[in-house]
Design brief:
167 residues, alpha+beta, Immunoglobulin-like, 6-stranded mixed sheet, 12 strands, 37% strand, globular, Immunoglobulin like domain containing receptor 2, Ig-like_dom_sf, Ig-like_domain-LISCH7, Ig-like_dom, signal
Length: 167
């Protein structure tokens, strides 16, 4: 009896796990040029029949990353990173120590820009990709793609990409 029931339980469990909301950002880090357009990709799958709400949030760096990108970083940041390989002094800090703001939200075909981004050429294209028409200096940081559905509450509903804007 166990030989018959156990495979069915395993199959049911795997099917349930696959049907949960899954958000993935294929590129974890993207480097782009100042005043040029870019697209931050985000893919999601859901078992929900309801329309998903897609939101992109921006989080600034915890400390300036420009020096590191040019090959000059602080000795303190280097020593802390060496002690804990999982911790990144540029990315890992409390939200209260950095700027956090909503870039854009999409529900159905309606896209709403966050207050800071109004007047800029920014939209959400395809299902969840963030398209920025002209990059500015302050656009460097972490971008979180967050997807919510009213009836698919299991799984991973967000992922992030780091954007570094260079001259």
């Amino acid at each position: 009896m166990d030989r018959v029931v156990l495979p069915w339980i395993a199959l049911f469990w795997l099917t349930a796990m696959a049907e949960g909301l899954q958000v993935t950002v294929p590129d974890k880090k993207k480097v782009a040029l100042l005043f040029q357009p870019t697209v931050l990709r985000c893919h999601f799958s859901t078992s929900s029949q309801q329309p998903a709400v897609v939101q992109w949030k921006f989080k600034s760096y915890c400390q300036d990353r420009m020096g590191e990108s040019l090959g000059v970083s602080s000795p303190r940041a280097q020593s802390l990173s060496k002690r804990n390989l999982e911790w990144d002094p540029y990315l890992d800090c409390l939200d209260s120590r950095r700027t956090v703001r909503v870039v854009a939200s999409k529900q159905g075909s309606a896209v709403t820009l966050g207050d800071f981004y109004r007047g800029r050429e920014i939209t959400i294209v395809h299902d969840a990709d963030l398209q920025i028409g002209k990059l500015m200096w302050g656009d460097s940081g972490l971008y979180y793609c967050i997807v919510t559905t009213p009836d698919d509450l299991e799984g991973k509903n967000e992922d992030s990409v780091e954007l570094l804007v260079l001259e």
